[in-house]
Specification:
There is one protein chain. With 320 residues, this protein is of the alpha/beta class. Helices cover 34% and strands 16% of the residues. It contains 11 helices and 12 strands. It has a 5-stranded antiparallel beta sheet, with no helix packed on it. Helix 4 links the parallel strand 7 and strand 8. Helix 2 packs across helix 3. 33% of the residues are buried.
Length: 320
């Protein structure tokens, strides 16, 4: 690899001091253009303070760390960086197939779900769609409650398109429009021990909220609230009667500082499906959570193999 590489650096954090047992192997001067030479060279200088640090290493101990994102397309040679680390440094062999990953998911579902009823909140995005398609391969239709909630932030007619796409892969979908509920939603917290009733704390409504972090928390709390409404009023069920399936990927859990992914990570941003309120419900309600280990947002192939291409290739829109 050339010593000059174009990479994506999306975080504003910076490293100012590097321990003596680590060597700087990558720095940058201008935006996302970085100097990166994994395994090609090492710098024997001792750095007191570093400006624009992107990578560190201890070559003897085979420890490497980077701050940029090698997994995204904007890092031009990201896949080669992974290959260098996995095969040249870690000594792994390329004998893993995506079919193995899909089979792992199916085995996990069989062992955890068995004959239980599963509730999946299907947004129509890649993560939840792949989860729904995998559940369909294992579970009978009577076991699955696939709920699509229109929160008012979708594109025009997109919710209808999502429902139709999910139906095309053999799923029976419950579609409910809670647009008004979301617009006027506030931060929610459980009032009763069983989490069935909720009260609003003093906060602006969602449509009045500017802070993206606060928006995500309101949205996450409201999703669980309205899902509970559908279960109780339409299906005559309680949350404790079902397994709650979440399609949250491991990178999202790490960004949210979820203990499911790491005991040491700091929150970068709270994902709407990992708010503190969602975690409280998750602690009370039985869950099936295979996506964080079995799926990856950087690999479209599992999505295309088990689900609808039209759904999986649909470009997402962030409402916050």
């Amino acid at each position: 690899m050339d010593t000059i590489q174009e990479v994506l650096l999306s975080h504003g954090d910076s490293v100012t001091i590097v321990p003596n047992n680590l060597t700087v192997i990558a720095k940058y001067n201008d935006l996302v253009v970085g100097k990166f030479a994994l395994m090609l060279f090492s710098m024997n200088m001792s750095f007191e303070t570093i400006s624009g640090l992107l990578g560190i290493a201890n070559v003897e101990q085979k420890k490497y760390g980077v701050q940029f994102h090698p997994e995204v397309d904007l890092t031009v040679n990201g896949m080669q960086i992974f290959r260098n680390f996995l095969f040249e440094i870690a000594g792994l062999r390329a004998n893993f197939l995506m079919a193995n990953r899909e089979q792992e998911c199916l085995n996990y579902i069989r062992s955890h779900v068995k004959s239980k009823t599963v509730l999946l909140l299907a947004s129509g995005g890649v993560d939840s769609t792949v989860c729904a398609a995998l559940l369909r391969k294992v579970c009978s239709p009577d076991q699955l409650i696939i709920l699509h909630i229109d929160n008012g932030f979708m594109r025009k007619n997109e919710s209808l398109q999502v429902v139709e796409s999910l139906k095309k892969i053999g799923l029976k979908v419950i579609h409910r429009d809670f647009s008004d509920r979301f617009r006027y939603a506030r931060r929610r917290r459980p009032e009763e021990e069983d989490g069935a009733d909720y009260v609003s704390v003093v906060s602006p409504t969602l449509m009045e909220t500017v802070d993206p972090e606060e928006k995500r928390k309101i949205i996450g709390d409201t999703f669980m609230e309205v899902a509970n409404v559908v279960l109780k009023e339409d299906l005559k069920l309680e949350l404790n009667d079902v397994l709650l399936c979440q399609g949250t990927l491991r990178p999202d859990l790490i960004e949210s500082s979820s203990k499911m992914a790491s005991q040491h990570s700091e929150a970068i941003k709270t994902h709407h499906n990992d708010t503190n309120f969602v975690r409280q419900l998750r602690a009370r309600v039985r869950t099936v959570h295979f996506a964080s280990e079995c799926l990856s947002e950087c690999l479209p192939k599992p999505c295309v193999s088990v689900s609808s291409v039209s759904v999986c290739l649909r470009s997402p829109v962030d409402c916050v």
